[in-house]
Design a protein that fits this description.
Elements lengths: L1 H12 L16 E2 L2 E2 L5 H23 L4 H36 L3 H14 L2
Length: about 120
């Protein structure tokens, strides 16, 4: 349960879509006052949990004095996993949040998306 609480707090702190119903079926927070569902919440949480576990393994490799080249390869794998999580969130955001924003003429949501993309691709 501690890991779930940590993940949940992290998701809230970073504005990441998630569920409060315990099964990951949907996200109930809205952007700009209009709630909508994120279909990939459970997949995102699973991917994040795997990436966190992988990163813990890399930390152990460093603690154990493993070969630097092996550690670098594993860091690249973790970075790739995190980027893929970001892509899933971005696609979900475009398909749901941005569609809602356009329907509600919410220019702030579009501006926020542009800023988020800028930070994500750096």
């Amino acid at each position: 349960m501690e890991q779930h609480t940590h993940d949940h707090d992290y998701l809230h702190a970073h504005g990441i879509a998630h569920s409060h119903d315990g099964d990951g079926a949907g996200h109930v927070h809205g952007h700009g006052g209009h709630p909508h569902v994120h279909e990939n919440t459970k997949a995102v949480l699973n991917r994040l949990s795997r990436a966190i576990g992988h990163l813990e393994s890399v930390k152990k490799m460093v603690e154990d004095g493993r070969d630097c080249s092996e550690v670098l390869v594993q860091i690249a794998a973790v970075r790739s996993a995190i980027n893929n999580v970001g892509k899933v969130i971005l696609q979900d955001h475009i398909q749901h949040c941005v569609v809602d924003a356009v329907e509600h003429n919410d220019q702030e949501a579009i501006t926020n998306l542009c800023q988020a993309i800028d930070k994500f691709v750096k």
